[in-house]
TrEMBL record:
Annotated protein name in UniProt: Pectinesterase inhibitor domain-containing protein
UniProt region (Disordered), positions on chain: 27-63
UniProt-recorded Gene Ontology molecular function terms: enzyme inhibitor activity
Compositionally biased region (Basic residues): 37-48
Record bears the keyword Glycoprotein: yes
SUPFAM superfamilies in the cross-refs: Plant invertase/pectin methylesterase inhibitor (SSF101148)
Gene3D superfamilies named among the record's database cross-references: Invertase/pectin methylesterase inhibitor family protein
Skewed-composition ranges (Low complexity): 27-36
SMART domains, alphabetized: PMEI
Compositional bias ranges of the Pro residues kind: 50-61
Keywords in alphabetical order: Disulfide bond, Glycoprotein, Signal
Signal peptide start-end: 1-29
Family classification: Belongs to the PMEI family.
Amino acid sequence: MAPMATTSNTRKALVLLLLALLPLSTVSSRSGPSSHRSSHGKPPKHSPPRGSPSPPPPAPAPTTAALVRATCNSTTYPDLCVSALSADPSSATADVRGLSAIAVSAAAANASGGAATAAALANSMTNATAAAQAPSSSAAAGDATVQALLRTCATKYGEARDALAAARESIAAQDYDSASVHVSAAGEYPQVCRVLFQRQRPGTYPAELAAREVALRQLCTVSLDIITILSNSS
């Protein structure tokens, strides 16, 4: 029996030697479930790879007030522009083309007021001369000259009003080059009035007309600026 005991002991020694030589991971896989599996025997879940970020939402369309402000900020006189456009209720639903027409209308209203002012001044001088008792010949001649200048001013402001009306028609027809020409001409007409006074009756240019001239020139500049924006975007 001694040889059999020796053989058994030899086999046990070989088994122990093989177990000692095997990697620990191999022994663990045989002794129990894998550590990479869940308690239910299912493989772990992996989150899906993240896709590309979604595009940002489109910017909201500007409100009417924002459109007026944005448009006027591109003009030479932003505050005057906002005041003139906001005074017209139709600016609440207008696009840039509509705003350009509103600006031209504001300038036309100023030109009409200038014509009426010049005519009223001329008429007041006529009434004052008629009421005066035996005016001197020099005073009468001076009054007649000033009256003639005032009537010329009324005509020039009327021509400015007509040019601005033509500009509105050109804007409606999307003929922005012609609209610019008409507005530019409208801004020049009142200057003729001032120059005539400077040459023939220096120092007598009425303050009312001087204020009208400045306002009309600025309104025409605003109108031209908006027409330029409109032309560049079309």
